[in-house]
Amino acid sequence: MEYLKITGGQELNGEVIISGAKNAALPLIAATILAKNEVSICNLPDVVDINTLLKLLDKLGGKFTKCVDCIKIDTSKLNNTTATYDIVKTMRASILVLGPILARFGHCEVSLPGGCAIGQRPVDLHLKALEAMGAQININHGYIEATAPNGLKGTKIVFDKVTVGGTENTVMAAALADGVTTIINAAKEPEVQQLCEVINNSGVKIEGIGTSTLVIHGSNKELLHMKDFDVIPDRIEAGTYMCAAAITNSKLKICKVLPEHLEAIIAKLKEMSFEIIQDENSVTVMPTKEIKPVNIITSEYPGFPTDMQAQFMALATQANGTSTIDERLFENRFMHVSELLRLGADIHLNGNIATINGTKGQLNGTDVMATDLRASSALVLSALVAKGETSIHRIYHLDRGYEDLEGKLNKIGANVARYKE
Question: Active-site residue among 42, 67, 108, 116?
Fold first, then answer.
């Protein structure tokens, strides 16, 4: 097992190039199951989660070839409809093959998913949507067994709550369904938007992209001719490096981003008195005389992303005053707090609200343990300003979602090294 050792107190400077979005790439890879042709996907991040899904695609009978940050995927000879536990247990996003396999073959078996333990993220909304489209679903021995011998039928689906994965699975299933499917209360995240745009460009008309109501005109089981495309930039990686600049009070340019995807993050950094200079494909964080406290409530896009609250909690430890973070989406996403306390942070929890006192002294390096993907990045950010050395263990969480983290940090002046336990 590997760990990171970070020596704090280094000023950052220069530029960081952001990779493709993991959370966009995963459903897009799953969507190639709907294609009858070879598809080239570029700007693909080299992270563990992507490689896990590609391994699953290979087990299903798909073929792929890699070239730098591009990949060619051919699922025309797909012949296996079972996604086994040995792969699905490591990553929740594996559930995204459920919709497209069922739509294409009329049956599938997909293991119930694993992934970060950040609270209950049930797949019941996925299953209810597919049942509304005519699927028969049973759960046996930890597997979702789904059949639709007469094919999926277009219908109206109303989600009780916003679900990104549920929206993505339903959109992919609806693409091959017979008739029109309308999704009410659909997720509006940029990653969902790109999935819809790619399918729309493949000949399946989708109306309402970027809104909470999607209308998908299904192809009635006719496979799609999918065009080549580039994955959008990773807004969460971009936000993490923006927080790295802010917590070290450094000037840093974040390149190859879409600033419109970062509006909620930019707004909160401005509240904390940082000047943000925006260009067409970059944002630059400028240092400030005083980091001000902030109050954050997580919500669905375009609100403040839950995937950024841990990073802002780390940043709030350096603010001159008391900040609060109200986590509204997941009930168990404050597991990083105990590790931040080990570093010397002053944080108090009351249910789903964290209070961070940023005036109680400097953080000090120590040994900490990553508990999930975004919590890991909060520990990295804290280590950048902690006095002395911090060792971050169980960094396989980090490797699931950040491409070459230590390489990118070292290029901008950090002192980060990877070791084996």
Answer: 116
